[in-house]
Specification:
Blueprint (H helix, E strand, L loop, with lengths): L28 E5 L2 E6 L5 E3 L7 E2 L3 E8 L5 E6 L1 E8 L2 E6 L9 E8 L5 E2 L1 E3 L8 E7 L10 E7 L1
Antiparallel strand pairs: 1-2, 2-3, 3-4, 5-6, 5-13, 7-8, 8-12, 9-10, 9-13, 11-12
């Protein structure tokens, strides 16, 4: 077995690919730290890592997320893979993805509330389902009244 020891791998200007395992690699590629598997890319291109959980496991990444104010003119505070929010009416929003999902089999998490003298917890639910280009949902109060809210936060996992 050959070893190459380096402190830094630098690329030339422009676009460069770094290939680990060679062009004929049909197995997985593993990076070790302290002689323990830390990161693996398997032959199906799944990223696996050990982030303090005791073993290397497949990472199911957040494909998109957004934090926005849904009162008045909708305003995104910050986001990842979200191009815009469509305000469809009171408490009715569509999150539009920058890069489409591979299919509609993703999971959505929601947190939301109204900032006032005391925070009120609001519920988000999907009544229109998912599409690969976006996700439409409603925000309601615990009394089941549709409402706009100043704090909407969603994450999409696939």
């Amino acid at each position: 077995m050959s070893k190459i020891l380096v402190d830094t791998i630098d690329t030339r200007s422009g676009t460069t690919n770094l290939t680990i395992g060679g062009s004929n690699n049909t197995g997985s590629t593993t990076i070790k730290t302290n002689n323990t598997d830390a990161v693996t890319i398997d032959n199906s291109q799944n990223l696996k890592f050990n982030s303090g959980y005791g073993s290397v496991a497949t990472a199911y990444g957040c494909r998109a997320w957004v934090n926005f104010n849904g009162i008045g003119t909708v305003a995104i505070r910050d986001s990842g893979n979200v191009s815009s929010i469509t305000d469809n009416g009171t408490g009715d929003y569509t999150v539009n993805f920058t890069v489409s999902m591979p299919d509609i089999n993703y999971t959505t998490t929601y947190a939301g509330g109204q900032k006032s003298a005391t925070w009120g917890l609001y519920l988000g639910y999907s009544s229109y389902g998912s599409s690969t280009s976006g996700h439409r949902f409603h925000v309601t109060t615990p009394a089941d009244a549709t409402t706009d809210t100043s704090f909407c936060s969603l994450a999409f996992f696939r």
